[in-house]
Known about the structure:
- The structure holds 2 protein chains of 2 kinds.
- Chain A is α/β, with parallel strands linked by helices.
- In chain A, helix 2 links the parallel strand 2 and strand 3.
- Chain B is about 25% helix and about 40% strand.
- In chain B, the strands form 2 sheets. In chain B, strands 5, 6, 7, 8 and 9 form a 5-stranded antiparallel beta sheet that branches. A 4-stranded antiparallel beta sheet of chain B has the order 2-3-1-4, with helices on one face.
- In chain B, a hairpin with a 2-residue loop joins strand 6 and strand 7.
- Chains A and B meet through strand 6 of A and helix 1 and helix 2 of B.
Amino acid sequence: xxxxxxxxxxxxxxxxxxxxxxxxxxxxxxxxxxxxxxxxxxxxxxxxxxxxxxxxxxxxxxxxxxxxxxxxxxxxxxxxxxxxxxxxxxxxxxxxxxxxxxxxxxxxxxxxxxxxxxxxxxxxxxxxxxxxxxxxxxxxxxxxxxxxxxxxxxxxxxxxxxxxxxxxxxxxxxxxxxxxxxxxxxxxxxxxxxxxxxxxxxxxxxxxxxxxxxxxxxxxxxxxxxxxxxxxxxxxxxxxxxxxxxxxxxxxxxxxxxxxxxxxxxxxxxxxxxxxxxxxxxxxxxxxxxxxxxxxxxxxxxxxxxxxxxxxxxxxxxxxxxxxxxxxxxxxxxxxxxxxxxxxxxxxxxxxxxxxxxxxxxxxxxxxxxxxxxxxxxxxxxxxxxxxxxxxxxxxxxxxxxxxxxxxxxxxxxxxxxxxxxxxxxxxxxxxxxxxxxxxxxxxxxxxxxxxxxxxxxxxxxxxxxxxxxxxxxxxxxxxxxxxxxxxxxxxxxxxxxxxxxxxxxxxxxxxxxxxxxxxxxxxxxxxxxxxxxxxxxxxxxxxxxxxxxxxxxxxxx
Amino acid sequence: xxxxxxxxxxxxxxxxxxxxxxxxxxxxxxxxxxxxxxxxxxxxxxxxxxxxxxxxxxxxxxxxxxxxxxxxxxxxxxxxxxxxxxxxxxxxxxxxxxxxxxxxxxxxxxxxxxxxxxxxxxxxxxxxxxxxxxxxxxxxxxxxxxxxxxxxxxxxxxxxxxxxxxxxxxxxxx
Lengths: 558, 174
């Protein structure tokens, strides 16, 4: 006989879980009581449950396996919410286990009682309350199957304390659940797509996160090389296709390079794979790729036609569809189209003043690691610089909160990425705003011995909001100047190495020293205060309306 | 082109599934005209009807979104014109002695059944499309309506050989 809590541990092992991110509390105590009996489950004690969810998300993204976070009822559970919403938007298989007050107390506003199932319904693939010990094992197993299956996403399992204490016989899982067969791709649609691709003069591939989630990067490379079609990678598609490949074009959308967006606007065919036409990609959809027909390769049929009209939907797994298209098409090239795109390229405009420019920092990090590192970015200006200036050549090495845009993501998510990839450096790159949202997790790194490298791009502002204020709100910097502590002293207080870089000449040395340090290390890069991300498509505008320099300040009387 | 669609969702009978389903309707920001919920013929299953204003693509996407919910077996989106829609109304109406006969005549026009009689009035059962129900309510208003309980719309698809016949909504009351 096992307790419910022991059973939960057994199922976690059954599902291949080796690490959990969590925080104990009253309603989850039986689980934590059982945990030491299962040494195969390593528990990482975070300093805030939000970090547990982000870390589980980071672990899932880097490992391709489900990430698990654990919290108690009430505030523990509600603190998971931002992390679960992030995982939901970015399709990360996260299983959250929460304690709940005992069943006789439920519905009576008991101490630390929150309807976390109700709270998380819109931000999970499944939220479920375990109502009885007899359903616990199957609910847990199903939670993993749902999180990983189809288009992945988070699941929350809420387990009342008395269920954790009930006893039951453990029955091993009967058989591995059959993998859900991928939807059969419509042969007619495949033929239509092949015809469109074969006949297109200015085709483009828009590759998204689905390439990474669906292990389709090799199929994508073969398809692209077979057809010569330029490959654009969305923010979450970055590192799905090597950036040093001659067919790689760049990132589209709000902060995409001008020649990339111009190519989209000139294209006669977009082959969108595992991406969902987010508004940060399309700008105003009325003016998006007006000359292009769209072939949309996507696992989730609810994405077809959601934001833009699609000529040929191909619903299914990206890899097999791409290889079927490769087989269906004669080899071709896009020489004239490439010439047109290359002619519209301009030398990168040097916007940065001073010598601690974001691009210099990111190239230094790349060089120091020989490119062998994982990069986790936070949200804001630095996120765009990290997306644009780090040369991603290895598969799935860029991690960011894309859909939700959750500041505070990088530091805890890097914990998860490190645990999935303990053998290579992991950099958490944040702004001074996002870093301060979850900097408490330095303590987790120290306690658990996680040698994560923390880079802070400190410009003294909530930079992206400040940039919008500068461009669109008459330079009224309302609530965007942000004070920071002395990060070097802060690092010292946590017992880790800390470096402040105030001159370009210090960059390489600090990066090398941080990498040499066997433990966590922090570098504060004091960058230009009012550096901007260029180019920029104003919110709500079409991809053709690009801002490449700061607008002139309005007269003082305005 | 936007038109009224009937979304039929067969799901388990757990309140949390209903909660998730209604949440989905709400957050997808579509004009929802009505929602009703009741038992399905299969034991342990429920059936949700939602009438939404949407173009064909959006209506089909809503059905697919429902099918992604754990606990939902099946969802279909059908143009309202291809369905037969009815609702039930229970009406408590005063029946003053001097107008009793007149009231029964009016109710007869609407094929409404008197299911309870009391000293101060009647309980009447009425079935029809919403326009029909509203028409009846207007007609009996002058007798004094005490209370009305409307079930909301339920619908089934028309038989295949009879697509797009004039809907009852369009049929005249008389």
